[in-house]
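ok so heres the complex, two chains, lmk if somethin looks off
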Amino acid sequence: MLSKSQARLFFVGGTIFFSVIFIALTVDTVRQMPALSNEDRMTEAVVRGKHLWDKSNCMGCHTILGEGGYYAPELTRVVERRGKEWIAIFLKDPAAMFPGERKMVKYPFDDAQRADLIEFLAWIGEIDTQGFPPDPDLALPVAAVAVRTDLAPPPPVFGTLCVACHAVGGKGGAVGPALDGVARRKTPEELDRWLADPAAVKPGTAMPKLPLDESTRAALVAWLSTLQ
Amino acid sequence: MKFQSQRIAYLFFATSLLLLPLQLVFGFIMGIAHMGWDGLHEWIPFNAARSTHLNLLVLWLLSGFMGAAYFIIPEEADRELWSPPLAIVQWASLVVVAVTALIGFQFGWWEGRKFLEIPRPLDYLVVANILLFLLNLVVTAWNAKRFTATGSVLLLGLTSAALLYLPGMITFENQVFDSYFRWWVVHLWVEGVWELIMGAMLAYLLIKLTGLDREVIEKWLYVIVGFTFLSGILGTGHHYYYIGTPGYWLWIGGIFGALEPLAFLGMALYALTMARRAGRDHPNRIALFWTVGCGVMSFVGAGFLGFAHTLPQVNLWTHGTIVTAMHGHMAFWGAYAMIVLGIITYTMPLMTGRKLYGGWVPELAFWTSNIGMIGMTGAFAVAGITQVYLERRMGMDFLQAQKAVQVHFGGVVLAASLLTFGIALFVWNFVQYGLPNVEAVGADEIGGAAETA
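and the predicted structre for the whole thing:
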């Protein structure tokens, strides 16, 4: 039968053995991590962005690389998902972009800080994460949802900003109303006035005033007017 | 209680039981926010509530471990503590650091790294504090004529925990490095050296409560903590699947992570077998409840529920979801909360000389808090699994998926209310005991058996 000293030997020996292996693996991992994380592309902006990320305790609600709080979205691939432009606008006033939804703190970042944070997130998105986060494997096949294929392609701004809240042809967010057939309800002039300053048309609206220049707005209105 | 200086434990236990209810308050703030009512957002945003909740947990458990060590080490060394005044200074400094950190969190003074939110300047104070604590215990053990295996494992656990705090204080600019070494603290604490502390406390309680031969209990203690390190050290790899580390961690973390339940299964069998074999009928039956309950619930929460999502094939989908919160709640409760509540239940009659372990209050506290925690875990599980399917596997938008699971947070909050009721009863019972009493020194532990029998 096992004696107490043998049991102690098992504990001490096992601990030393596995600690040595762990340290050896750590040495190898530390050697490989710079390449896996593209450390050569870790610019000063990325580092400043990380400090801002830590200082604001973003991990208290969000996860990156799957680590953090489970109260707000996973941000590992957020730049790929939303685009830098959308994130920059969103960060200025998070609640305005998702009216009536779960709130995010409105941080007093300036433009440079927002850019740093986005650079950090873009760098995170490039890390070799062994396939995390995975693409949904049970998503309904595209043919099963009513996707309009007869539409002209939308202007780029629609894909980076509008879809976060609005859907067309069953694709997009559900915060604002779907925009299918919007041309039947609104004239181009009404759409233009609305996009220029939503609150002026309908005080108290949840729709934020987006920083769209004249030509972008015109392109958007022209495209929206085709949605019969 | 054999030695006067063991009474110092009371200060730490009282601190623990002040911090624990506060942890519950912040837990409710988060649970209710998850239900869709985030009315406190302006004053206590979720990230502040979360950091406070997590660090209160760490602080009250550490305070409980320290109290346990001040009680156990003098007895295992068979002499008074080296310096009781130093222990009181150490306690006071712990309280100062804790209060400063918790207030600081409310004003955004933190590091924003999960579980290690305490800002760097305070980290140095934490280190100084732990050094004072260890110094006192090590000198006590050093000057002793004998020192037991239980005492050695406890001291080894505490010392290693202190050393492993240091990798968390290194500054890394690369997020992947930061994350890699953050787990040296977090994982190697809770799935490594804290298990030594827990195992030693479990062994001590079993020796005291069952009257079984110390040699047998300590032999199995070595076997169990042997399994802890056999699986737990390389098991750190289950945090290194998807954070930018080499692919071999999927294998190493998967295999050794899957072995981790063995140590907890060992704890459960250990507590159950020893309690069954008990050669004496200790009057403090409720302390044995907590002791055996700790073994069983740590296996269910840390072992079984940890295993449920430790394999990389599963973790790919559950990583970073509420499933982790499901496992985390019962794991910390079973392994660490229950052992601290167990040692408090065991020591209070000895320190105060009052034998308030009979009656319905302590027993109801045990059952309601445990049933509450089981209910919470169930509700978290439903919310987490739903989130995994809707958001991760079907591609539903995050906020829409969160709305779908809001109702289950109603379940979390309801079950948490039962847990809170149990904890309130526990604290009430603790207060009833009053302060430690000099007359309790040297009193016979079993002496009260006749009264309650």
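quick notes: Residues 175-210 of chain B form the longest helix (36 residues). thats all i got rn
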